Fold this protein.
Amino acid sequence: MTRPNGAIYMDQITIKAPDDWHLHFRDGVLLPETVSATARCFKRAIVMPNLIPPVTKREQALAYRERILEAAGPGSDFNPLMTLYLTDETTPEQIKEAASKIIPAAKLYPAGATTNSEGAVGSIEKLFPVFEAMSECGMLLLVHGEVADDNVDIFDREKEFIDQHLAPIHVCFPNLKIVFEHITTSEAVDFVLQTGDNTAATVTPQHLMMNRNDLLSGGIRPHNYCLPVLKRNVHQQRLREAVASGSHKFFLGTDSAPHTKQAKENPCGCAGCYSAWGAMELYAQIFDELGAMAKLEGFASIYGPMFYGLPVNRETVTLIRDSWTMPDIIELPSGESIVPFYAGQQINWRLEL
């Protein structure tokens, strides 16, 4: 069946098994929940290192990976790919020691920009020798692209980061592969499109599905609060156009980030949306709304491994048009709970398990 816009209407789609190229598992008691939710539909995931204490060295990354594999359980073929947390003290030697298929990337957080980033990078320019080492050994640079400056409006911090830091890094290190994580603005889309094939971006479900009205209209909605913060509708639409275009420069990265209900509903609530519970279904809904279901496989399953220089998964998954409701609450063994992204709302696609 063909829709008025020329897109093909379908009731199911089978694609190569997808990967999540940006997410947060956290640690400890949260791991059984977060790992199982992700391994349900993703074969691989790039795991963020902003734990307490952060994962700054090879040994810490490998130990964290073992905890994740233990949470995945015996017989699981889920493959967590680890990252290092860059600080002002990171050395080129630490990069060269860590770079491998298991630790393919390092994460740049400007100090104070987001959750558990207080000990991150204070002077980006001082890390240029580290970027040179990353470029030489093929380690990817993953960027939280916001300036952490209280004098810059929170809605402008991504654009300022591009102008002040990301553009100069790209010029100085043209062979360095850079992933501009969880982009939120038209300026970020333009930057990625205008730079060479060594620059790409991940896009989250929340930034494709929502804008700042969904955070602030009718009262503050803490479970939609994430960083980078939701932007104006015009930026949301630019992101949707970017993924619907089928460009290989944009691929799946949920930035799924669990926080307890109490931590989110707090006088100073924390940032992050826990989307792992329905991630592929949410993306399918987005691409269906855009009339771009034929582009979903590239975004979810092909462009990410292509950029990382990894093989595309051989297995396949099938998504079926079948409505269900995201749970209001996910109970944890500790007695605490998480409110998932899109809680209580209808989703029109279901992953066939």
